[in-house]
Amino acid sequence: MKNIYFLIISFFYLTFISYCADKFEPDEIKIDNSYEKRFKIISKISIQENENAVLKSIADVDISDNKLYVLDYGSGNLTIYNINSGKLINILKPEINLSDSVCVKSFSPYFMNTLDYNYIDIKVRNHKRIIPLDRVKEMNQFNRILIDENIYLLSTLRTYCYKKNKANDSLIANTAGLVEYDKNLNLLSVIPFANSYKGCPIAFDFIKTDNDEYYVVTSDNIRQYYQNKLDSLPILGKYNNNGDFLKITNFLDDKLTKSYIGYGIDYQISLTKVDNDIFIATPYTSNIVNVANKNTFNLINLPFSNDKGFEYLENNDGNIDTSEVKNKYLLFPVRTYRLFTRANSIIAISHILFSKQKKGVDFVQEYSIDGTLIQQGQVEGNINNAVLQFIHYNKNDDLFYFFRKDNSKGWTMEVAKWE
Known about the structure:
The protein is mostly beta strands.
């Protein structure tokens, strides 16, 4: 299922040329240009690739000690570059033995909701001569990165499991876990986040608090136990420093459930922390929510609104008329895909799909934590066939990093600041 999420992301993230039938057009909004601030490109660096380090698409980025750390969706690897030259330094692969940490936890595969299945580690599996079901599906993956004193990688851990007393009745289960390395890439710990009927962590985004608690994107198939309704989809769970589940903190926005689109994209959320406050954004709702007090503010001054798309799906029970719109995701020209922290404010990055002009642009907006728009800038999606793939903001140097891919020339990184 996670691959489906990545395909949806890639659809918006890697291609900006799409089409929509003439009968449906989203509502356009006039932009107030007084908030506009241009980006100044400071430097442009080519990213080195070779046969062992082919960067397909970017899952996440962090910067520390003059090193650029890049997570690749395609391989799940962590690739490390010199920040000034773009030269390749090292590659860290999410080895399958990381999954052994799941086996020591006292929980069963979450999708079974039963104790009939057990996890099995590599050593036991080899002893029993159990043949892997699918080595591709069995590959682990690094999905999010956080660097402070050490390197923390939110990971998808794929673990072999079998039915009790029936070793030939087996499957591969996904579990979210936090893998910690020192800066010399020595493995320090692996914390698998416990699956339970109350919440199933997904390795999409996370926050590490000052007291070593974790907020992790979370799903659940029996959501009716919480709010006594089918549409109460959990999206964020809280876990202790052992990975044990504490509680569900946030549920999916009603817009996404009533329109039926939430069942496909509900875990593509972004998190950031300003002081002690954690904020969450879902892709198409164009709002930001404070996790603790649930205070919400809307993103403003964007060229389109998604409201008409939500209304269309609600009125049609989630179905589309292909004579009106070719794909339900084209109903939503605004997709907010990342949050960052800048001093005491929030950076929200939204991709805007222009259906008429057949081009895309990313809006970088800065808001106070109470929702006041401070400033914003635009980043063109396609410049001389170099297509924007990812934007990273680094609060330590107050710089933006624009990653572009040219199919014939490879990857470049533009370092930019607001003028």
